[in-house]
Specification:
Blueprint (H helix, E strand, L loop, with lengths): L2 H12 L6 H10 L1 H18 L1 H4 L31 H37 L1 H15 L3 H12 L3 H11 L1 H16 L2 H8 L4 H37 L11 H8 L8 H28 L5
């Protein structure tokens, strides 16, 4: 009976976040590259949300009398082989790419987190079975696994998101499992067990808040990989299909004309490069800000 007040005291301490929020924000804001990456991603998000208002032309209207027009005041990024405005297509492509990145990360993160927590908490045979499946999935390169799944399900936006999301499950499962094993041995988990809390309550109230940092860091970096993988699938014809405005498919469609109409592939490629670099910088900043060694 003497352990109960002690357990309650530990639980009250554990209910508070592991990191000082003000300190995390200050450390993040000191990283100028991370702040720059965040600003770029905010701009891309605004472009994606307000694409109809920002794009000067329709992304799908063809003008066969104005094909391969170079960049000008009328068409800032020129036109493609069908006379479509490249700038408008890049703007609308931001919407598709960010949706793919968010949903793919959501699939991989949610399934991987559930698998990692289940394996670490219940252990024994459950751990061996789950991690064996994760090992099999991780033995296949992520891009190759995404290509295989997309080829099996068929091309399309939804299938591309599922393929990219499934291919990222192993990394989340391993990160979460390792984090849960570290947290599970701490005193406040024993205190929660002594106080009579069930496994689901302990996981929801005490484990998840203490393993969010590595999940957030991986999700920010994983979104960059998801966008790049989705663009790769579209480039080889297994992702988003024309005439949809997606950066990877735009590069694929314009590669045959790269010598005479460089703008068709250059601007979508720059959009992919900026997005991936911004997300990587943002992920590095979050990693440094959430690192307890930097407190």
């Amino acid at each position: 009976m003497e352990r109960v007040p002690y357990a309650k005291g530990l639980l009250e301490t554990a209910s508070q976040t592991e990191y000082n929020k003000d300190g995390v924000i200050q450390r993040f804001l000191k990283n100028r590259l991370a702040v720059g990456g965040m600003i770029i991603m905010v701009l891309f998000a605004v472009i994606a949300v307000f694409a109809p208002q920002i794009a000067p032309h329709s992304f799908e209207v063809q003008d066969l009398n104005n094909v391969f027009a170079p960049p000008s005041s009328q068409h800032w990024f020129g036109t493609d082989n069908f006379g479509r405005d490249v700038f408008s297509r890049v703007v609308y492509g931001a919407r598709i790419s960010l949706i793919i990145g968010l949903i793919s990360v959501g699939i991989g993160c949610s399934v991987g987190t559930i698998a990692g927590i289940t394996a670490a908490w219940w252990g024994s045979a459950v751990d061996r079975v789950i991690m064996s499946i994760v090992d099999i999935m991780q033995s296949i390169p992520g891009l190759l696994l995404a290509v295989s799944l997309s080829a099996a399900m068929g091309p399309g936006l939804v299938n591309a998101m599922i393929a990219v999301g499934v291919s990222s499950i192993p990394i989340y499962a391993r990160i979460v499992r390792a984090s849960v094993l570290d947290v599970r041995g701490l005193d406040f988990i024993d205190a929660a067990i002594v106080s009579g809390a069930g496994p689901l309550r302990i996981i929801r109230r005490h484990i998840l808040p203490n393993i969010l940092a590595p999940i957030v860091i991986q999700a920010s970096a994983g979104m960059a990989g998801a966008i790049l993988t989705a663009a790769s699938l579209s480039f080889i014809g297994l992702g988003v299909q024309p005439p949809a405005a997606e950066w990877g498919s735009m590069i694929s469609a314009g590669r045959a004309y790269i010598q005479n109409a460089w703008w068709i592939v250059t601007f979508p490629g720059m959009a992919i490069m900026l997005t991936v670099c911004a997300l990587n910088l943002l992920g590095d900043g979050l990693r440094d800000a959430l690192d307890p060694k930097e407190k």
